[in-house]
Amino acid sequence: MTPVRKSDYTETCPACGHEVSSSRLKRNLKVCPRCGKHGRMGARERLEALCDKGSFRELYRGVGSRDFLNFPKYAEKLRQAKELTGENEAVVCGVARFGGEPCAVFAMEPGFIMASMGSAVGEKITRTFEYAMKHSLPVVGFTASGGARMQEGVLSLMQMAKVSGAVGRHGNDGGLYITVLTDPTTGGVTASFAMQGDIILAEPGALIGFAGRRVIEQTTGTVLPDDFQSAEFLLSHGFVDAIVARTELASTIALLLRQNRKRRPA
Amino acid sequence: MTDEKKAAVEMTIDLSEDKPMTAYDRLKAARATTRPTSQAYIERIFTERIELHGDRHFGDDPAVIGGIGFLGERPVTFIGIEKGCDIDDRMTRNFGCPRPEGYRKALRLMRQAEKFGRPIVCFVDTLGAYCGVDAEERGQGEAIARNLLEMMGLTVPIISVIIGEGGSGGALALACANKVYMLENAVYSVITPEGCATILWRDAARVADAAKCLHITADDMILFKVAERVIPEDFDNFDEMCRLLAHQLDADLTELCKLSPKRIEEDRYERFRRLGIIEEKTENPRIVIKTKLPRININKDILKRILHRK
Fold first, then answer.
1. Does residue B147 contact residue B124 with C-beta atoms inside 8 Å?
2. Which long-range contacts (CB under 8 A, 24 or more apart) does B198-201 make?
3. Number of CB pairs < 8 Å for A and B?
4. Residue B117: CB partners within 8 Å, gap ≥ 6?
5. Around Cβ B284, how many Cβ atoms within 10 Å?
6. Domain architecture of chain A: domains with CATH
């Protein structure tokens, strides 16, 4: 039996009810050792676990959101999110290596207002693509999001176009863009940079879709099957390239980066 | 009073002069079934038209219409989201909520325009992209994402006119333009005010409050630089209104066509690159980050006026 450390506590898998110590769960990348349920992972935690050890260097940490519309409860929500996650915004960006291959990375933080995309998230990801283009780097992005952040009104919507422009330019320059769709990736993020990767991977069981499940059920008056909008559903409909278990992700990304090195200019 | 009558009173728009229109009034005006739809504008603005159908993958979405016509001497690709003019037509057209094949049809026509160097004019009027099982199965998210990606890279000028509702990603998929016009009472929003009210207050009936909070009117769009022009509405003299709109489109396209193809793409990129309001801190307070990117300078007085208007 693993000795239980003082800081350790027991966590229960929401899928199978298996009890596991938090340190063991962390070592297993938040994947339940019994049923393989992929638990949600914070952005920084994910980057530290998946990138080559010590290779992650953060960029644009100072960029944050402003409550410029005086939107109800937004300032409070931002404050709580910062406290809860220790992050300044719902996405963490930077440069890192996978299997020695350098790349620009971003990972979205589900604990930060459901990783919704406002002006700051759009700005950080756009800058990451511009940085990658300038330095001839591929981009690896881990998406998770409830969609556009309504608290910033129409300017959140505009971030979809802004990021898409940067993705397009990076791609036209010959840059590789790999997206990893994690639970949950929905709304305006699905309808923009999550689905724009040259290679689109997904974690097992992740919820991925455009419209929310409840909205579809209300609109159509039907009850949806459990696997609707799961990663497996998207794979069978041809919208993701592969489903990769979290424990295999780092090596898969390293392989893809090695296979898709940028063409040398003629 | 019967419920039906109550609803009718509720939907009446108060146009008395002493009371300025609220965001909710404008939302109701934008959704009014008496409002002209894309078809009506296209018929009056373009001559010698041909409508083109189908996405070449799955089908032909009646919620999106498109084709080629002349704006003055200039061949132009037109695309519009069509809500339909009577109840049967509205049902056929899914009330102007496009499915993925609608967006793919639009993209096909835009690629064609790019090939032949034709400017593109889009008319946007949708509650949002259709939320249905079939739409999800065929990749609604992917279809919109693809449109955004490719529209941002086109080297022909694009002008989008929001004629009624600009509903979220489903509207943006036809509005990654060099210039965006808003009709006077058109609205543009990241989420339906009903959806916003449900999330905020668990009460879809507080739609008026949500509409105010979201800042969805044409004035707001000008303030945030999301739109360039507001087009006055005059549905009683609709032919004349369309003549003026055609004139405006022609003038702006003439200006945009003077730019090189590369500059047209850059113009659109820079237009969207500026959008967003953020704060930027540094770890060391003595260092001031000077951002090269142009930021929106919001006039505080105007912002106050808009935020606190009744």
1. no
2. B199/A150, B200/A72, B200/A73
3. 195
4. B156, B261
5. 7
6. 11-40 (no CATH), 41-259 (3.90.226.10)
Q: Where are the domains of chain B?
A: 16-307
When scoring A89, A143, A158, A185 by the number of chain B Cβ atoms within 10 A, the one with the most, hence best to mutate, is A158
**B190 reaches A (C-beta below 8 A):** yes
* A148 secondary structure, DSSP code: B
**What class does CATH assign to B16-307?**
alpha beta
pLDDT at res. B2:
47
| A154's tokens | 């129409």
For residue B110, pLDDT beyond 90: yes
**Mean model confidence pLDDT for chain B:** 89
Which residue from B151, B145, B175, B147 is spatially nearest to B163, judged by alpha carbons? B175
CB atoms A216 and B221 under 8 Å: no
Are the beta carbons of A190 and B141 separated by less than 8 Å? yes
Say if CB B165 and CB B187 are below 8 A apart.
yes
Can you tell me the distance from the alpha carbon of A245 to that of A57, in angstroms, rounded to the nearest whole number? 25
Tokens of B127: 């509650």
Of the two residues B26 and B18, the one the predictor is more confident about is B26
Interval A210-265: pLDDT, tens: 998 888 888 888 888 888 999 999 999 999 999 999 999 999 999 999 999 887 66
What integer pLDDT is reported at residue A264 of this predicted model? 67
The two three-digit tokens of residue A237, written as one number: 């409909």
The predicted pLDDT at position A9 comes to 85
**Cα-to-chain-centroid distance, residue A251:** 18
Q: CA triplet B196, B198, B202: central angle to 5 degrees? A: 140
Is the separation of the CB atoms in B250 and B271 below 8 Å? Answer: no
Query: Is residue B78 classed exposed, middle or buried when 0-12, 13-18 and 19+ CB atoms within 10 A define those classes?
Result: buried
Nearest of A204, A200, A176, A175 to residue A190 by alpha carbon: A200
**Residue B101 or residue A17, greater confidence:** B101
Token duo for residue A256: 């893809």
Q: Which residue has the tokens 């034709």?
A: B118
- First CA to last CA across chain B, in angstroms? 29
